[in-house]
Amino acid sequence: METLGITLFRVLAGMGVLFIMMLATGRRQLGEFSSFDFITSLTIGAVAGSLIVDHQTELVSSLIALVALGGLQLFFGWLSIKIRPVNYKLNFKPLLLVENGQIIKKNLRRVHMPVEILLQLLRERDVFDITTVELAVLEPHGRVSVLKKAEHMPLTPSQVNFNVSSNSILVPVILEGKLQEAALTKMGLSAQQIEEFRRLHQDTIHNVFIAFMDQNKQLHVIHDDVREQSVFLH
């Protein structure tokens, strides 16, 4: 029982420090990590794992090591913003892989990328014919950005002088049969309108899985039986 208590305490202490470090370093996905960030994160994980499972490891020393690693990560993150050469060393520069439909073999060799992998990355960007590519750039996070040739890009409404309505954000106002009054208030409905809506639809709201409202006060409803319909507020 004592061992279990020690383990739980170490878990809470380690997770607490890691959570604070996560808040300090900001929201980033794994694909946005630099090589230094990735190595540091692996080291932090190893230290945290040792802290939890190995009771012979001194708790205070391990927590100090975690804080030091997090501080080092923050410092180099700040340094990469202030000094561009440091940023390029830690994150690498964008690298041109395809130009005017032609693969730049020298750059492929620099990043040790087989042609098959390049073609796979292009297919993931909906490019199945490399001759349609104007530029393909390998970004620091490992993804490929693609610019197609002008004649292979889709037309936009502005190019054909066609007026379209602006996009609107759909706000969830009913979730699993529960009316989201705060969301309706943000959409501009008064308390009286919300109550009137509740009264009119009290027999059907509980059957709604999710309902979105647009800026025109139109609801897009998905029922529990996956049938979709639209209703209007009056």
UniProtKB/TrEMBL annotation:
Residues in YetF C-terminal domain copies: 84-211
The YetF-like N-terminal transmembrane domain, residue ranges: 8-78
The keyword Transmembrane helix belongs to this UniProt entry's keyword annotation: yes
Gene3D superfamilies in alphabetical order: bsu07140 like domains (3.30.240.20)
Membrane topology per record: Multi-pass membrane protein
Pfam entry (one): YetF_N
Annotated InterPro entries: DUF421, UPF0702_alpha/beta_dom_sf, YetF_N
Superkingdom to which the source organism belongs: Bacteria
Transmembrane domains' residue ranges: 6-24, 36-53, 59-81
Keywords: Cell membrane, Membrane, Transmembrane, Transmembrane helix
Subcellular location per the Swiss-Prot or TrEMBL entry: Cell membrane
Sequence similarity: Belongs to the UPF0702 family.
Stated name of the protein: DUF421 domain-containing protein
Organism: Sporomusa sphaeroides DSM 2875
Lineage: Bacteria, Bacillati, Bacillota, Negativicutes, Selenomonadales
